[in-house]
Amino acid sequence: IQEVLHVAGVEMQLTAAVSFLTVLQEESVSIHTYSHSFLHIILQNLEHRDAGVSNAWLETLLAVIEALPKETIRHEILNPLVSKAQLSQTLQSRLVSCKIMGKLANKFEAHIIKREILPLVKSLCQDVEYEIRTCMCRQLEHIAQGIGTELTKTVVLPELVELARDESSSVRLAAFETLVNLLDMFDADDRSQTVLPLVKSFCEKCFKADESILVSLSFHLGKLCNGLYGIFTPEQHLRFLEFYKKLSTLGLQQENGHNDNQLQLQTLEQEKKYISVRKNCAYNFPAMIVFVDPKNFHLELYSIFFCLCHDPEVPVRYTMAISFYEVAKLLNSGVYTIHKELVTLLQDESLEVLDALVGHLPEILELMTNGGENSGSESKLLSIPDLIPALTTAEQRAATSLKWRTHEKLLQKYACLPHIISSDQIYYRFLHRMLTIILTNNVLPVQKAAARTLCVYLRYNRKQEQRHEVIQKLIEQLGQGKSYWNRLRFLDTCEFIMELFSKSFFCKYFFLPVLELTHDPVANVRMKLCYLLPKVKSTLKIPTDKHLLQQLELCIRKLLCQEKDKDVLTIVKRTVLELDRMEISVDVFQKRFYENDLLDQEKERQEHLLLEMEQLEKEKQQNEGRSTNVNDKMFEKKRRDSKTSSVLAKSIILSVPGSSSGTSAGKEDKKSKLVRSQSFSTQALHPKYSNIDKCPNKSSATGYTSSVSGMGKSCMVSFSDDSFRTHSSGNSGNPAFPSSSSRNLFNSSDQKNNGNKESQSRKMSV
C-alpha cells in the first residue's frame, strides 16, 4: 500500500483513508502496531495536493489521536507540528496544523498546552492569510475547554476581541460564533464589559456594513439573549426584543408599513438570505418566550408568532411546526392563545409542514385540551372549535398525495383522538373514514395504520350499538369480502384486536369468523391464517372456551387432510407442532401467566365499565324524560281541577321524580355521575379507573342507588325518596300553595294515611 499510494489516484487515496480508519475502529491490530505501521503513512499524505484527499487523511488522523497514547502523540504529532505551523510552510500545511491543535488541546494538561501549544495558537491567529485566521479562530473553542476558565479569560478572550474587529468578514463571523459558544466560560464582568459591547456592535452593523453576519446572528440570537439575560438593563432587554421582531419580518415589509423600492429589486441571493433569517427566528422562538417570560407572550410575541406561522415561505412554517410543541409546553396554561395557529398549520398547503407538526400532535392536542385553566371534560373541544374539520382536511390532503409515509404517520397519530374528543364525534367523523381507507387504499403500511387506529376507536367507543355495527362491517366487508386483499387485512385487524382487547372480547366476536378463513379459496389467505393460529389459540380459556378449542382442532384437522397447496401444507404442519407445545390458560390465575392474565383482566374490566357507563347514561336519560312527562301531566291535571283542588289538597301527596325543587342535592349527584360518564373516554385506561366492578342497580320505593367502586376509591350516587319528590313551592309549578303549608300537608296526609282508608282510596284515585 505504501508503495502504491504516492502514485495512486484520488479514489484509491480516499478508500485507503477510510480503510485505515476502519482498521483502527475495529481494533484489527493493537494500538502499538497501528502507530508503528499506519501512523506515518497517514502523516505523509496529510499534505496531498488534492484538498479532498488531504481532508480525508486529516479526518482519519483526528480519529486516531483519540486512541493514541500521549507519548506517541507528543513525539509523532506535536513535535513536528511546531515546524509545520510556521509562516514559511504552505497554506495547506498551516490549515492542517490549526485543526490538529484544536484536537490536541483535550489530550494534554493545561501547563503543557500553555507552554507548547498556546504560542503556536497566537502566531496562527495573527497569520497573514485570512483562511488561517478563520480556521484558528474556530479552534479556540476547543482550546479554551482544554486550558480552563482562567487561561481562557487572559489568553483566548483578548484574541477573540481582536479577531472580532478583523478586516475579513469570515474572520469576524468565526469570532462571533466562537464568542457565543464560550459564553458559559465568561463571568458576569467579562460579559458586561467585553462580550455585550461586541454583540451590540455586531447587531448595529449587520444591516449596513456587515450583512455577512446577519444569518449567523439570527441563528444565535436566542442563545445570546438568554446567556446575557442577567446583565441586561430594561432598556437593553427591550432593544434586543425589538431587534428580534425586526429580524422576524425581514424581507416582508418595512417599518413604515410599505414596501421599500430596494426590496422590490432584491437579488435572489438576498431573498434566500432573508428567508434563512426568518427561519432562524422561527428556530429561536421558544428561547425568546423564555427571554420575555411566558406570561408576557400575548403582549410581546403573539404578533410575531402569527407572522411566522403565516409566513409565505415553506421553510419558515416548517420550522414553526417543528417547534410548536415546545412553544405549547412553555405557554402551559396560556396555550389557548395559539389554538388558531394550530388549525392554520394543520391546514397548511405544504405536506412538509403537516409532517413536521404531526410528529408531536398527540402531545400538542393533550396540552390544548387539558393545559388551559378553563379546560375540563365538559368544555373539551369548545376551546378548539375548528379542530375536527382541520384534522379531517389534513388526512384527506395526505391521502390524495403521493407521500404515503406522511399519511401513515398521520393515521398512527390520530389514535390519540379518543383522549381528545368525544366518542360520537370520532364515530361520525373518523371511524368510518378508517374503514374506507382499509378497503380502498393501495398502500399496505397505510392500510395497517388505519386498521390499528380503527381498533383503538372501537376500543374507546361508548355505545354498544355502534360497536356492534362496526364489528359487523369488519366481518362482512373485510372477513367475508370478495377481494382476497380485504380478507388479508381482516387478519391484520384481528391481530390488533387481540393486542388491544381482552381475550373474551376476541373470542366472542372474531374467533369463529377467523376460523372460517380456513376454507378460503386463496392460498395466501390460508397461509397467513396458519401463521396467526398460535395467537388465536392463546386467547382461549379452559373450560369456558372448550367448544371454541374443539372448533379450532377441527379446522386444523381439515387443513391437514384437505389442503392441496404444498406451501400452505408445510406451514400447517409447522403450526401444528407449535400449537401442540402451547399451554392454554385457564380461568383461574396461574403463576406462569400471571402478568398476561392480569393485563387481560384489566382490559376486560374496562370493557365492562364501558357497558356500565352506557347503561347509566340511558337510565339517566329515561329518568329525565319520565320526570318531564309526569310534571306535564300533573300540571294539566291541576289546571283542570283547580276548582276542587283546595278541598283535596290536604290529603294529596305529590311524588314526582326529578323535580327541580327540593332536590338540589340529588340533582348534583346525578350531574356529577353523568360528568364522570361523559369523561370516561379520556380516562378509560387510567389506573385509577381500571379496577371498577359491576354493581347491581336497584330501583324501589326507597330510592335508586348505583355504586361504582375502583382501586380503593368508591363513588356513591344515591337518589332517595326526596330525590323523586316535589315539595310544593312557588317555583315548582304550583303557585297555589306556599312552601310552609306544603310541609303541613305532608304531615297531615301521613296521619290520615295511617288511620283513614277512605282518604287513602281518594289519594290513589287522584
UniProtKB/TrEMBL annotation:
Residues 697-707, 726-738, 750-766 have a biased composition (Polar residues). InterPro entries: ARM-like, ARM-type_fold, HEAT, HEAT_type_2, PPP4R4. Residues 617-643, 658-682, 688-707, 719-766 are annotated as: Disordered. HEAT repeats lie at residues 117-154, 156-194. It comes from the Eukaryota. One of its GO terms (cellular component) is cytosol. It is found in: Cytoplasm. Serine/threonine-protein phosphatase 4 (PP4) occurs in different assemblies of the catalytic and one or more regulatory subunits. Component of the PP4 complex PPP4C-PPP4R4. Putative regulatory subunit of serine/threonine-protein phosphatase 4. This is Serine/threonine-protein phosphatase 4 regulatory subunit 4. It comes from Chionis minor. The gene is Ppp4r4.
